[in-house]
Amino acid sequence: MTTNILPMLPVILPFIAGVIMLFIGKRPMPHRIISAVAGLILIGFAAFNIYYVYINGTMVTYLGNWSAPFGISVVYDMTAALLVFTTSIVMFFVIIYSFQSIGYEREKYYYYPMVLFMITGINGAFTTGDLFNMFVFFEVFLLASYVLITLGSRKVQLQEGFKYLVVNIVSSNFFLVGLAYLYSVTGSLNMADIHIKLSSYEGSLAIMTIISVVFIFVFATKAGLFPLYFWMPGSYSAPPIPVIALFGALLTKVGVYAIARTYSLFFTTDVAYTHQILLLLALLTIVAGCIGALAYTDMKQIIIYNIMIAIGVIIVGFSMMDYAGTVGAMYYLIHDIVIKAALFLLIGFIIYRTGKNDAADLGGLIKQHPVAGWMFFVASLSLAGVPPFPGFFGKLFIVESAFDNGHAIAAVIVLLSSLIVLYSIMKIFIKVFWGEPVEPIELKNIKSDKLLFSAIGLVIVSTVFGLSADFLFPIFEMAAESFYNPSSYSNYLMGVE
Amino acid sequence: MELVTIFLSGILIASATYLILSKSVLRIIIGLSILSHGVHLMILTMGQLKRGSVPVLDEAVTSYSDPLPQALILTAIVISFALTSYSLVLLLRNYKELGTDNTEDMKGVPHDD
User: Fold this and answer.
1) CB contact burial A140-168 (16+ within 10 A = b; e otherwise)
2) Is A62 helix (H, G, I), strand (E, B) or coil?
3) B39 Cβ under 8 Å from any chain A Cβ
4) A243-301 pLDDT, tens per residue?
């Protein structure tokens, strides 16, 4: 039993970089360099870890060399590896984007350290194998996100930031309640150990149902599922664009990951009940997101409601808990992280260049920015799931699995939602890039090479991912296995007991 | 004994709910910290309450209590301490920028960009 440092690096690296920046003080230039370099190194290690996990199987590290069910173990399976890799890519591009968009004052007041601390928490939540440790990492990235959402103290940020704070503190406390219940039932906090203990569970089903409802309340609030998404449109539109891109791409997905993990490992005794609830909530989320996406012409709001649609689609896949459903959900999860960040960065470029949030006020930008325009077009096709872009593969598997399991209505809703996604995002494209503006727009003279570099970089990443989806299939199959066959996740305990 | 602490944590969570639903920002923050106290008490109860036993695993000790809930609470208290101090700073900043600590008056701040 050796302590392997590799699975810890995605947590340690951004943390150390953040601490170094705190010691350097309020000097933006070194901050920029350190955070970008840390991002690049992180991408390197995360890519190596994917390769390593692919060859050797799940990496497990026992912190402090305490053996598995007792100490905290870090379980770096393929799901975690893929999510950490995608997180690093998004983080790197968003940091480059921030150089020219976040503003000197925010850079001075520790914007980059906070981004890196948030990444520490997110990577930690993805890789940990211990439920309480997951709570701690949730708090780490939430605390950093409270700072990021209010940094700059514009009035709307303070107002929305406070709401965001209250909602998240309440749901975190319920996370503790659910954890305490689960501990009293199983006497363990190690997720794999809980899975083994619950698979031979013969106690009352009622308590398990209560625990599952508490957990879904917690993670649905974090992920923005119906009916607990009420805080999301307001809070996500308040901070500056790079922060929204990070929040929209990553924070909600951590909630989705937590739902998938807990529901595949813990709540397997009464699947008919718990997973039906999950499916129903996911479908309602899709419908609510569609209504929101159709109602607005504000570009930020349309994309924010599109986050909800994507969350719904992913959860539909995970709630099936079979082979096709989870493979599809994994594809869609990774795809959505990249493409949501790309879209936010692209509309951010438009907003910074024109100074207007509302797509209805704009027009004819294709003459000035043909590259950005066509990249936006590619990104919107990708979001809607047109082949050969990666969203297609995810939706294909999810819909197939929904039909197989007799949830034809779910499949139809997922398919129809694609049309609405396409319509809502094409609405932005047509209004902003085609036609003539309602009134002449004065383009602001800003430096935009790095803005375009990151936005286009992410679109290219997404396209490459789509074209190589076939080649990457074994990796995604491996990642999905820990969901549809949860005993593969808890295998590492077998040698210990 | 468990029943008493469970009732106590129930009372704490109920009063926290009342405070969180009020309009003053300071009351909401007090409510949030009371909520976390209620939850911590709940965790302690979940590890079974015993009298006069030590949380160590040793050959000589026959009756020992579970050390894990205490460790969990310690961590959770530190986290809730950080959150409370941050939310108090946010309250101060809110009051300075928006000129009010009433959530009703905070509504409808124009979304300036």
Assistant:
1) bbbbbbbbbbbbbebbbbbbbbbbbbbbb
2) strand
3) yes
4) 999 999 999 999 999 999 888 888 877 777 788 888 999 999 999 999 999 988 888 88
Confidence of residue A497 (pLDDT cuts 50, 70, 90): very low
Yes or no, beta carbons of B98 and A170 under 8 Å apart: no
Residue A136 near chain B (CB below 8 Å): yes
Q: What ipTM goes with this model?
A: 0.91
What confidence category does residue A1 fall into, taking pLDDT thresholds of 50, 70 and 90?
Answer: very low
Separation CA A226–CA A221 (nearest Å): 9
- Written as one letter, the residue type at A204 is S
Q: Find all residues with CB under 8 Å of A295, minimum gap 6, and list them.
A: none
pLDDT 10s digits, B14-39: 999 999 999 899 999 999 999 999 99
On the CB side of A130, how many CA atoms lie within 13 Å of its CA? 22
Cβ pair A7, A61 in contact under 8 A: yes
Q: What is the DSSP string of A239-277?
A: S-HHHHHHIIIIIHHHHHHHHHHHHHHT--TTHHHHHHH
Cβ separation A166–B40 shorter than 8 A: no
Length of chain B: 113
CA-CA distance, A230 to A164, in Å (whole number)?
10
Residue with tokens 């705190």: A22
Mean pLDDT by 10 residues, chain B (113 residues): 89 94 91 93 82 68 76 91 92 86 72 47
Question: CB distance from B68 to chain A under 8 Å?
Answer: yes
For A441, list phi and psi in degrees, rounded to 5: -100, 135
Spell out the domains of chain B, with CATH numbers in brackets: 2-50+65-100 (1.10.287.3510)
Identify the helix (H) or strand (E) that includes residue A76: strand A73-76
CA A218 to chain centre: 16
- CB within 8 Å: B111 and A173: no
CA-to-CA distance for A158 and A254, rounded, in angstroms? 24
Q: Within 10 Å of residue A88's Cβ, how many Cβ atoms?
A: 25
Considering only CA atoms, which of B15, B35, B101 is closest in space to residue A162? B101
Q: Is the pLDDT of residue A312 over 60?
A: yes
Chain A CA closest to residue B104: A159
A170/B32 CB distance under 8 A = yes
- Nearest residue on chain B to A151, alpha-carbon basis: B90
User: What is the rounded distance in angstroms from the CA atom of residue A217 to the CA atom of residue A178?
Assistant: 10
- Tokens for B58, please give them: 């040793």
